[in-house]
Specification:
Blueprint: E1 2-8, E2 11-16, E3 26-35, H1 38-46, E4 48-49, E5 52-53, E6 58-59, E7 63-71, E8 83-86, H2 96-99, E9 128-132, E10 136-138, H3 145-148, H4 151-164, E11 171-175, H5 179-190, E12 195-200, H6 203-211, E13 216-219, H7 224-228, E14 237-242, H8 247-256, E15 257-265, H9 276-281, E16 285-288, H10 295-304, E17 314-319, H11 323-331, E18 338-342
Parallel strand pairs: 11-12, 11-14, 12-13, 14-15, 15-16, 17-18
Antiparallel strand pairs: 1-2, 1-6, 3-7, 3-9, 3-18, 4-5, 7-8, 8-10
């Protein structure tokens, strides 16, 4: 089979890898669609991010969906020819955190396409993948395989909403409208948000945000005072989803969060400086959010039941032979929201 293997920054190769048969409780999936994620781009552009760096060649990818091509012994409820979205979350279910129901914090997590452990966890950007049957969630009739491949990033934002608490009647600010910010709009609206305001520095993504549920959009590069106006009377928003990883966006959001507001940090960046006195005086809660686990099944259900229309977020699909062009296209935020690869 062909696989997309990253060796170092800007060194992405199409390589032949052995396709293994499924074992007991496993299925073989012919991968058809894979979405390029921000972490994939970090490996492609920089060879890693933060303290995580490539130390050996690694198959990229974790936003994947395809068709079952073989079934191992003892598998029930799944058949050859069925289409599935594949969760990349593979916790051990035995460690301290798994036993507390915090599988996303598993000490022995085997998450596809991750260079955190050594040896690295090989990813899903390949033509054939053997997975545990419990990772596979059936794709509904009439749902495209490209839509199904959105289940993983959608689950990320559903977990972020879970971390924020009840959305019912809340006024929400989303800063940064890349794929995760856009999906946060959809997730917050589905969970009862009353009003959603979105900021970015690019008009074309803000136009898309309005089409998927934002009540108002603000280009903070050209019109920063429009956001500042929400700082009157100690702030306006109940919840902020910070999806840019940018310190200025985070600080601007704290200015307009109301007392006892919640800031959920989705975007990855570096060390930042925060206005400690403001956080104390307004009793702001800052909450991290990391990956997901049980939310993956909910994401697939919402896509299958047409509760969430993610099609507007797909910019283009590239064949596997044009993988480098696909990654370069995904790098261009002025043109691309979500780029997928067809395997």
């Amino acid at each position: 089979m062909k696989a997309l293997v990253i060796h170092a920054a800007k060194d992405l190769r199409i390589e032949e890898r052995e396709a293994l048969p499924p074992g007991p409780g496993q299925v073989e999936i012919a991968i058809q669609a894979g979405g390029i994620c921000g972490s994939d781009l970090h490996y492609y552009n920089h060879g890693g991010f933060g303290t995580v760096h490539l130390r050996e060649p690694m198959i990229l990818g974790h936003e994947i969906a395809g068709t079952i091509s073989a079934v191992g012994e003892g598998v029930e409820g799944l058949s050859i020819g069925e289409r599935v979205a594949v969760s990349p979350s593979r916790p051990c279910n035995h460690c301290h955190y798994c036993l507390k129901g915090q599988q996303n914090q598993c000490l022995h997590m085997q998450f596809y396409g991750s260079a955190m452990p050594m040896p690295h966890i090989q990813g899903g950007f390949r033509q054939q993948l053997v997975a545990e049957s419990w990772q596979c969630h059936k794709v509904g009739d009439g749902v495209s395989i490209e839509e199904a491949a959105f289940a993983e990033p959608f689950a990320v934002t559903l977990h972020a909403v879970n971390r924020a608490g009840s959305m019912l009647g809340k006024r929400v600010l989303v800063t940064g409208c890349g794929p995760i910010g856009a999906l946060a709009i959809i997730a917050a609206r589905l969970h009862g948000a009353r009003e959603i305001v979105v900021t970015d520095v690019m008009d074309h993504v803000l136009t898309l945000a309005q089409g998927i549920g934002a009540d108002r959009t603000i280009n903070v590069a050209t019109n920063p005072e429009a956001l500042s106006a929400y700082g009157a009377n100690k702030g306006y928003f109940d919840v902020m989803f910070e999806a840019s990883g940018n310190e200025r966006a985070m600080r601007a959001g704290l200015e307009v969060l109301a007392p006892r507001g919640v800031l959920v940090q989705l975007g990855l960046g570096g060390d930042v400086s925060l206005p400690q006195n403001m956080i104390v005086a307004k009793e702001i809660e800052i909450r991290g959010t990391f990956r997901f686990h049980e939310e993956f099944g909910l994401a697939v259900d919402l896509i299958n039941n047409r509760r969430a229309d993610l099609k507007p977020l797909l910019t283009a699909v590239y064949p596997i032979g044009d993988a480098v062009a696909a990654f370069e296209a995904a790098n261009d935020r002025s043109k691309a929201m979500k780029i997928q690869i067809a395997f």
